[in-house]
UniProtKB/TrEMBL annotation:
SMART domains: PKS_ER. It comes from the Bacteria. Residues 10-320 form the Enoyl reductase (ER) domain. This is NADPH:quinone reductase. Keywords: NADP, Oxidoreductase.
Length: 323
C-alpha cells in the first residue's frame, strides 16, 4: 500500500510517500480501507518531535474514515462505513496517513451516510473536540455568552454553530480583519479583532464579562481570556494554535479571577459515541450544520498540506482524500 511516512522529527519535508506492506490483521483490531482523513495541529507537533513517546518512522494520522476491509471478530461486515479516532492512533501505532490502517476495535465507530468521503473526513476529530469542549467541559446552557478565542479555526467555526444552535450568544476572535465577514456569515454575534489583548473589547460589550470561554489559541492568550469571564465564569483550554505548550509564569491566585474556573479538554475516543456521531453526520446531510472545509489534498500531497497547516493559512478544516 501507499503511505505517507514521517521518517524523523522535523519540517514537513521529513514526510515521504512510500510503498509499504499492508498491515496484517490481528484479533481485536480492524483493517480499514482509508477513504479520507482530516489534518490536525497535534500531528504537526508530533511531526516536529514534540509529542512524548512517539518513535519514528511513523505513519501519522489520529483519525480517518473509510470502509472495513477485514474484521476477525465479525463485529463489522466488510464494506461497513467507519471512523477511527485517537487512542494512540498515529502516535503509538500507525495511523490514517495511508491507503489502509489497522486500528483497535474500541476506537472504531460505524456510521451510514451518503456524504462524499472528503466531507466525512472532516468530521470525526473536529466533532469530538467541539462537542466535548462545549458540553462536557464548559457545560454550556441556553442564554449564556460564549467567547471563542481562535474563531476562524475549523474547531472555532463549528463551535459557533453548535453553540448558536443551543441558544448561546457568541463572541469570536480573529487576528485578521479580512476574516471578519466569514465569522459573521458563520453566525457570530460579536467579532473581536485580537491583538493579543481582548479583555477591554469584551468588557465593553459585556461589562461583567462572559459566562464561558473556549480557548483555542492556548497558553499565549490564556491569562487574557481568564480576564474576560464573569464571576463563576469558566475557561476551557482546548487548542494550542499559538504553538506553545507551556507558560513561563502562571500565578493561580491572581491569574485566575476569584470564583473563576479553568479547565482543559483533551478528548479521547471514549468521549464519543456512535449515536452522537451519526446524529451529527445526519445534521450535516440535512444542511443544519455547515462544515467549513478550507482545502482538500490527495495522499501524495501530505507534505504540501502540512506546509499549508504550518503557515496558518486555513480558514477551516484541511482534509486529505485517499483514492
Amino acid at each position: 500500500m501507499k503511505a505517507a511516512i514521517t521518517t524523523k522529527a522535523g519540517s514537513p519535508e521529513v514526510i515521504e510517500i512510500k510503498e509499504v506492506s499492508t498491515p496484517q490483521v490481528k484479533l481485536g483490531w480492524v483493517l480499514i480501507k482509508v477513504k479520507a482523513f482530516g489534518l490536525n495541529r497535534s500531528e504537526l507537533f508530533t511531526r516536529r518531535g514534540d509529542s512524548p513517546g512517539v518513535e519514528f518512522p511513523r505513519i501519522q494520522g489520529i483519525e480517518c474514515v473509510g470502509v472495513v476491509e477485514e474484521d476477525p471478530s465479525n463485529t463489522f461486515e466488510k464494506g461497513q462505513q467507519v471512523a477511527a479516532i485517537m487512542g494512540g492512533m498515529g502516535r503509538f501505532f500507525d495511523g490514517g496517513y495511508a491507503e489502509y490502517t489497522l486500528a483497535p476495535i474500541e476506537i472504531i465507530f460505524p456510521f451510514t451516510s451518503s456524504l462524499d468521503w472528503g466531507t466525512l473526513g472532516a468530521i470525526p476529530e473536529m466533532f469530538q473536540t467541539v462537542s466535548g469542549s462545549l458540553h462536557q467541559a464548559l457545560e454550556i446552557q441556553k442564554g449564556e455568552t460564549l467567547l471563542i478565542r481562535g474563531g476562524t479555526s475549523s474547531i472555532g467555526m463549528l463551535a459557533c454553530q453548535l453553540a448558536k444552535g443551543k441558544g448561546l450568544t457568541v463572541l469570536s476572535t480573529t487576528r485578521n480583519s479580512e476574516k471578519r465577514q466569514a465569522l459573521l456569515d458563520n453566525g457570530v454575534d460579536h467579532v473581536i479583532l485580537d491583538d493579543g489583548i481582548v479583555k477591554y473589547q469584551v468588557r465593553k460589550i459585556y461589562p461583567r464579562g462572559v459566562d464561558k470561554v473556549l480557548e483555542l489559541i492556548g497558553t499565549r492568550t490564556l491569562k487574557d481570556s481568564l480576564k474576560c469571564i464573569a464571576p463563576k465564569g469558566m475557561v476551557c483550554m482546548t487548542g494550542i494554535l499559538g504553538n506553545e505548550w507551556t507558560m513561563k509564569e502562571f500565578t493561580p491566585m491572581g491569574d485566575i479571577p476569584s470564583l473563576g474556573r479553568l479547565t482543559v479538554y483533551m478528548g479521547e475516543s471514549n468521549n464519543l459515541s456512535k449515536n452522537l456521531l451519526q446524529e451529527f453526520i445526519n445534521d450535516v446531510e440535512r444542511g443544519t450544520i455547515q462544515l467549513r472545509i478550507d482545502r482538500m489534498f490527495q495522499l501524495d500531497e501530505v507534505v504540501k498540506a502540512h506546509q499549508y497547516m504550518e503557515e496558518n493559512k486555513a480558514k477551516g478544516k484541511l482534509v486529505v482524500k485517499v483514492e
